[in-house]
Amino acid sequence: MSIVLYHHPFSRAASVLWMLEEVGVEHELRFVDIMAGEQKEPELVALNPMGKLPILVDGDVVVTESAAIGLYLADRYAAGRLAPALDDPARGTYLRWSCFAPAVIEPGLMAKMAGWDYKEGQAGWGNHEAMLRAIESAVGEREFLLGAQFSMADIIFGGTLRYMLTFKMLEPRPVFVAYADRLSARPALQRADERNAAIRDARGLGS
For strand 55-58 and strand 28-31, is the pairing parallel, antiparallel, or unpaired? Predict the structure, then answer.
């Protein structure tokens, strides 16, 4: 087994576990006690200078940042199934929405919640309402981001929406909730949720 995920169920590594379940590749979870600051230990900082999770090690390859991990896993282990081929026109849409989640949704919602004062033209995430309209355009009239085909982009983008809806950080528009419900029906996500919950219980971390 070459793939190791440094994991804590209250970190973005929880979503990477969903990615691994969808890809279907063998892997090992190594628990990192982020409450005790273990992610800042020299061994992990050597892997990720940010001192954060998730960290995925695949043999000699180290990947950090959850979106990058997802794109890596799909290309290497599920090409044509969870990632469109390099010459597939759908790849443009796939990459667009995969990058939209960390580049627009996360900072855009943080800006809204924190009341950040910024000039719209200087912020990559634009304004809040435009962001919401963009999300609606992505999921409002199709089953998944690529239409009927589920892809890694749905884990990256949809996982972000699902998290934001769960913690009431995102307006629960009907199209957002319906999309999140479709994702929640996936067996791989259910398995990942169960595994994350089991680790929380075993470690006495609560819910």
Answer: unpaired
Q: How far apart are CA 190 and CA 92, in angstroms?
A: 28
List of domains in the chain: 3-81+189-202 (3.40.30.10), 90-186 (1.20.1050.10)
C-alpha–C-alpha distance, residues 164 and 179, integer Å: 13
Q: Which of 86, 109, 95 is nearest to 160 (CA)?
A: 109
Report how far residue 126's alpha carbon sits from residue 88's, in angstroms, rounded to the nearest whole number.
29
Phi–psi pair at 197, nearest 5 degrees: -65, -40
Tell me the pLDDT tens digit for each residue of 87-114. 999 999 999 999 999 999 999 999 888 9
d(CA 180, CA 158): 7
Give the pLDDT confidence of 37-83 residue by residue, as tens digits.
Answer: 999 999 999 999 999 999 999 999 999 999 999 999 999 999 999 99
Distance CA 100, CA 154 (A): 11
Q: Distance between CA atoms of 121 and 111, rounded to whole angstroms?
A: 14
Which pTM does this prediction carry?
Answer: 0.95
